[in-house]
Every structure is written in structure tokens, then in C-alpha cells.
Design goal:
It is a single chain. With about 250 residues, the protein is an alpha/beta fold. The protein has one domain: Alpha-Beta Barrel (TIM Barrel). Helices cover about 40% and strands about 10% of the residues. The protein is built from eleven helices and nine strands.
Length: about 250
């Protein structure tokens, strides 16, 4: 599987403080069946990560993982705050390209309030040659109240990433309910861990995949779409829903 949202780099944001913590997170990812993981450190006012720092740490973590015999490849990226992203030039945005795809940006959804200027920002990024993956909107209160807020963005080409902890219910009922609404409305395209440590928000899709009743859809969300994005290709068609079946298991 492929995880396109993680905070695996040491000492740069609220992820691991040390290289040992990064390696523990990668060991957990390997045990969970993840083969590639995008390092997406925060890029915002409180964590003003520079692309040079991110790329240096990605190289260092990969070297340490190889030395430790951990078979998980760490890819470059960044989780860009909307304000920070709007202020970056094209060269720096490309350096933060998700998974090393220089034309793909991972934007962080705010947790409170919905940015009315987001469609315009997406349009401006598209005019500059960038596509957008929107991280964890199901954790935003406005989206929880009205998941259809995302419909115009998805129609404009935005891809929606759900956090595994929302899908499996470990983040609470409201994020899980919103994740289910987005899955049912075909407004979600991939699931990522948003892992921060081996034992806190760990890199594991097992519970999220179990919560999704359709194995083909679980594969699409955790393998097929992420692989296409890394290759610079459009997402493959979403698996057809089985007749009279919901895309999730009925029990919370």
C-alpha cells in the first residue's frame, strides 16, 4: 500500500523528534504493509518548513531506513497551509510536490471555518499547472455539517484525502460520519494515515480497510489512486458499488 500523508521526518514539526522515532514509525508502516510513504511535514506559520530542509531529511531518513533494513521508501512532499501555499513561488511549490510529483500539492484543510476563497485558490493553482489533493476535510466542522461543500471542488478536479482514523472511527463519530458521507457521495479519492508516531496516530490502514465493506474500494483508496498520482496519471475509475450495498460496514 501507499501512504501519501505522514509526519515521518524527525525534528521538523509535530512528528517524531528524533531519527529513532522516524525509524520506529517506518517499522510500524512496514508491518502494516505500506511500501511507500510520502513525508508531508507541515508548511505553515508555526512550522515554516523549507523545501531544502524537507529534501535533506527525506534523504537522511531513507539512508537510515536502508541501514536498518526497513523496506519502506520515503518520498518527498509537504502538507501546505492555505496561506503558506498561496505565498510560495512555483519552484518551491514543485519542490513540495506530493510524493515527488512536482505538479501535485497536498493542501491542509482547516479544522474550524471553511475558506470561501478555496475555489479561487484551486483555480489559480490550476492556472499555474498544479493539481490539488485536499487533506482530511472530514475533520472540518463545516464539512461535517454539510459534506456537499466539497462537491464544487471535486467537480473542479480536487482530490479528497480521508484520514484512516476518521474512516475507522478512532477520531470520533463526527469525522467518521463525514467520511462515510463523502465515500457514499463519491467525494473521496484516497485514504492516508497522517501518521505522527509509531504508537500515536500510527501508519496503519487495517482498521480503515475493515470499515470499508468493499475490498475493491479499499484497494482503490489505498493503492490504485495513490499509485496513479505518483506516476502523474489520472486516478483510475472508482470501482462500481455493489448493488444495494453501502461502501462501509454498518457497525460503528
Amino acid at each position: 500500500m501507499i501512504d501519501l500523508h505522514s509526519h515521518v521526518l524527525p525534528g521538523v514539526d509535530d512528528g517524531p523528534a528524533t531519527m529513532e522515532g522516524s525509524l520506529a514509525l517506518l517499522r510500524a508502516a512496514e508491518e502494516a504493509g505500506i511500501g511507500r510513504m510520502a513525508a508531508t511535514p507541515h508548511v505553515r506559520e508555526d512550522y515554516p518548513t523549507a523545501p531544502e530542509t524537507m529534501l535533506r531529511l527525506v534523504e537522511g531518513v531513507n539512508a537510515a531506513a536502508r541501514a536498518a533494513g526497513i523496506a519502506v521508501e520515503v518520498l518527498p512532499g509537504g502538507e501546505l497551509d492555505l496561506v503558506a501555499a498561496a505565498g510560495l513561488d512555483d519552484e518551491r511549490l514543485r519542490a513540495f510536490g506530493l510524493g515527488g510529483n512536482p505538479s501535485l500539492l497536498l493542501l491542509e484543510s482547516p479544522y474550524h471555518g471553511w475558506p470561501l476563497g478555496l475555489p479561487d485558490l484551486v483555480f489559480r493553482f490550476a492556472a499555474r499547472g498544479f493539481s490539488v489533493v485536499l487533506a482530511h476535510p472530514e475533520r472540518n466542522g463545516d464539512v461535517q455539517a454539510n459534506p456537499e461543500l466539497l462537491r464544487p471542488l471535486v467537480d473542479a478536479g480536487v482530490l479528497v484525502q480521508l484520514t484512516a482514523g476518521s474512516v475507522d472511527g478512532s477520531f470520533g463519530r463526527r469525522p467518521q460520519a463525514a467520511a462515510r458521507e463523502l465515500l457514499g457521495a463519491e467525494l473521496a479519492h484516497l485514504v492516508a494515515s497522517d501518521a505522527h508516531a509509531a504508537d500515536w496516530r500510527p501508519p496503519d490502514f487495517a482498521a480503515a480497510r475493515e470499515a470499508i465493506a468493499q475490498p475493491e474500494l479499499a484497494d482503490w483508496l489505498t493503492r490504485d489512486v495513490p499509485a496513479a498520482l505518483l506516476a502523474g496519471s489520472p486516478p483510475p475509475p472508482r470501482p462500481e458499488r455493489r448493488r444495494s450495498a453501502l461502501p462501509w460496514r454498518s457497525a460503528l
